[in-house]
# Entry
Amino acid sequence: MTVTETSSGLPKAMGLRIGFARNALKLTQDKLSEVLGFSDRQTLSAIENGERRVKPEELVALSEALGRPVDWFMDPFVVAGEGTFSWRVNDSVTDEVLRSFEERSGAWVGLLRFLRASKRERLKPFSNILKMDARATFEEATAMGEAVAADLELGHVPAERLIEQVESRLDIPVLFVDGPSPTGEISGAMCRLPDLGVILINRQELPARRHFDLAHELFHALTWDAMEPEHRESPTPDESSRKQGRRYRIERLADNFAAGLLMPWASLKRVIDRERLADTEHLAEVAKLLQVSTKSLAYRLMNAQLIDKTTCEALCKMRCPQIMGPTPKRFSQSFVKHVHEGIDDGYIATRKTAVTLGLTISQLAELFEEHDLPVPFAT
# Structure
């Protein structure tokens, strides 16, 4: 399979991209039709719905009108119009910065989708869903997190096997990426495509934060149809967020799910000395064992009525003993292996791959070496 044979070159995908670019500029179909010289809006509507192919001269006109290069409309790795993102991102990140980073991230997801299709990987016919909606209680969300931990056989320290089981059992790839800045303003995201869901995690975050972000995004991956999250949410919602009703509630459900998944009752019973529930030093060590933050453990125990508010507040203020571990390698072993095989088998060009990943050819070679893979091209 070559680039030109992917679904990205078909009218439906191109139509979605045209609609995406038009909406980004806040242009109506009537206005864009007028710019293109169409006699009515129905022609553009048929193009955006994939019912009519775009003629070469029309594509050039669309490129000029929408401010996108011609190649963008035919790029097999673009997911604009098809993919939907939900970000955990600080308010300090502007919409413009987030849009730019989302396009980069979308290209990584699109590349992965293309490579999976090239290998004709078997699709799992059943979507992964949780039987709950926004009316669920926080206690029910916590219990569901515990149930998922048990079903995925995550063991006594769920954080240790979470990535492996999410990818192998649920077929949800997890990519560790660097944000637009090294300050951790973007924690993670869930990207939803019709045929693929991908979780992105900022690899520069502390281990406990990465674990919680992954569990939080997993909730969105499993409940997207019933509770589609907002495009951007703050990792630390303030009082104004609480007034947004359903939006805030969905994020709280995700947090409670994550707490149940990472700190199931079976694990807590195993590592907590019930005689030392008021001992914050002991509880901080428990947080280290479970590879979660002291704050996450504090609220988990208070919600379970195992500690009082005073102990909770004291534990929140404590710094968790250092959870050791290297920064995750860029992207993931499986992702980079897909890229390696794609280049080696001739499905993708080296230069195109490097540009998509935001790397030079030399840096692409370093990426393969980082993952202990031979470089599949001459350097």
Observations:
- The chain is about 55% helix and 5% strand.
